[in-house]
Write a structure and sequence with these properties.
The chain is mainly α. It has one domain. The protein is 76% helix and 2% strand. The chain has 9 helices and 2 strands, in the order ααααββααααα. Strands 1-2 form a two-stranded antiparallel ribbon. A hairpin with a 6-residue loop joins strand 1 and strand 2. 33% of the residues are buried. Role in flagellar biosynthesis. It comes from Sphingomonas baiyangensis. Belongs to the FliR/MopE/SpaR family. One of its GO terms (biological process) is protein targeting.
Length: 246
């Protein structure tokens, strides 16, 4: 039993922050059951030594190391899933729908409605390429590459994981680039028109034009945005393996 609990620490920490598994719509009972099932799978796949002393400093440090590795595995994927929210902020502000918010089914927080749509789309793409199974496979392989008791991540690895946070902003801006560039061009045109014809009502012309152009641009650019979301997911999975497992 103590071996199973010790094994579930890494798996549970990964599921606590990883996309899909950390969603508020997933009941805690389901998460604990999945964690226990994968923990039993790990115990059958490779030998995991049980702690010699439960209430000891070495056991506490080993448990902290297990939790740290699990959090790192899930956190990198969560960083990539922030890219659609960054893109929605850029596009929604330019379109004039930045005030439209809805409850995010993943986090339960209020986020832009366009961000919810892109997040759900990215989640479906993540499931379509079996990203959740790849995450479970990475967790299983982590017990071979980072065995319990020797799983401390160095300062360099933690720094690289923190620096990977900049990838969310880069991916979000690139995701919003096709639509954002078109909306920027329309805003420039409307600005020049307002300067050449001061009597022209900027809000009566600019906001409907930006909204219409944004909707059409999203419809046209959605296939390319979906392809880039797949690239972001694959980059995040590769980064998870490289930054954590080496």
């Amino acid at each position: 039993m103590w071996t199973l609990v010790f094994t579930m620490l890494r798996v549970g920490a990964a599921f606590l922050v990883a996309p899909v598994f950390s969603s508020v719509s997933v009941p805690v009972t389901v998460r604990v059951s999945l964690t226990g099932a994968i923990g039993i799978l790990v115990m059958n796949a490779m030998p995991v030594p049980a702690p010699t002393q439960v209430f000891a400093l070495t056991t506490v440090l080993a448990a902290a190391a297990e939790i740290l590795v699990g959090l790192a595995l899930g956190f990198i994927l969560q960083i990539a899933f922030a890219a659609p929210l960054v893109a929605s902020e850029v596009i929604g502000t330019s379109m004039g729908i930045g005030f439209a918010t809805a409850i995010n089914p993943q986090s339960g927080a209020s986020t832009p409605a366009l961000g919810n749509f892109l997040s759900i789309l990215m989640t479906l793409l993540f499931l379509s390429i079996d990203g959740h199974l790849v995450l479970v496979d990475l967790i299983l392989r982590s017990y071979t590459l980072l065995p319990p008791g020797e799983a401390w991540l160095g300062a360099a690895a933690l720094r690289n994981i923190a620096l990977f946070g900049g990838y969310a902003f880069l991916a979000g801006l690139l995701l919003a680039l096709p639509v954002g560039f078109l909306l920027l061009s329309i805003n420039l045109i409307v600005g020049m028109l307002s300067r050449s014809a001061p009597a022209l009502n900027l809000f009566a012309v600019g906001l409907p034009a930006s909204l219409l152009a944004g909707v059409v641009a999203l419809f046209v650019a959605m296939p390319a945005m979906g392809e880039y979301m797949l690239v972001v997911i694959r980059e995040a999975l590769d980064a998870t393996q490289t930054l954590v497992l080496g």
